[in-house]
Amino acid sequence: MKLLKSKTDQELIRAYIEGDEMGLKLLIDRYKTKIYTSIFVRVKDEFLAEDIFQETFIKVINTIKAGRYNEEGKFLPWVIRIAHNMVIDHFRKEKRGPSVVNGDGYDIFEVLNFADDNAESKLVRNQVDVDLKKLIQLLPDDQKEVLIMRHFCDMSFKDIAEITEVSINTALGRMRYALSNLRKMIEDHNMTFQFN
């Protein structure tokens, strides 16, 4: 198991193809937060996101088992593209667009794993998360989406542009506007946050 954990995505896929189920489990564990978050950002519903997440991995498994996986070294963007297409398919079937979640909606921060801190740091971090979440919810959807994908899913602007079907410059622009709007809201509310 320890030996498998240090393997690359390609090596884990190869292990899975050769019959080692742990290869796929490790890949899912490695990326589940990023993939789930990319789905949730679009559907804004915890249970629907979970269903689409599972459907995505069924498709991933079927594609790998059929020998049709050929995204050399690009496993995460490939799976996120599949997830994105599953979301589009869902809304086509529903014949409606995703709804906007208000401040009382599902907490995106619950799916993120933060490093363990002492009790005081955790309390401060929780309050910062709550305050920041409220402000992020006030951003326009396109800015909110890019900000979450970049900062909480650690995705590249190239991947964000691919998934959201816009140019890299548009994705960069949305991020710039999101950060600018957040800074203004923070100043308006006399809050202190550190942006990198």
Q: Which characteristics define this entry?
A:
single chain; 196 residues; mainly alpha; 69% helix; globular; DNA-binding; RNA_pol_sigma_r3/r4-like; Sigma-70 family RNA polymerase sigma factor; RNA_pol_sigma70_r2
Explain the overall architecture.
The protein is an all-alpha fold and 196 residues long. 69% of the residues lie in helices and 0% in strands. The chain has helices spanning 2-5, 9-17, 21-43, 46-65, 75-94, 119-137, 141-152, 157-164, 168-188. Helix 3 (21-43) packs across helix 5 (75-94) and helix 4 crosses helix 5. The two termini are 36 Å apart. The model is unreliable at 96-117 (pLDDT under 50).
Please render the helix and strand layout as text.
Blueprint: H1 2-5, H2 9-17, H3 21-43, H4 46-65, H5 75-94, H6 119-137, H7 141-152, H8 157-164, H9 168-188
Helix pairs in contact: 2-3, 3-4, 3-5, 3-7, 4-5, 5-8, 7-9, 8-9
What is Rg?
18 Å
Average of the residue pLDDT scores: 77
Number of H- or I-type helical stretches: 9
Name the overall outline.
globular
Largest sheet report: none
* Helix-strand string: HHHHHHHHH
Distance linking N and C termini: 36 Å
The stretches of 5 or more residues where confidence is low (pLDDT under 50) are: 96-117
Please bin the fraction of helical residues: 55-70%
Number of DSSP strands?
A: 0
User: Could you tell me the strand content as a percent range?
Assistant: under 5%
**What structural class is derived from the secondary structure elements?**
mainly alpha
Q: How would you briefly describe this protein structure?
A:
It comes from Sphingobacterium faecale. Helix 3 runs antiparallel to helix 7, helix 4 crosses helix 5 and helix 7 crosses helix 9.
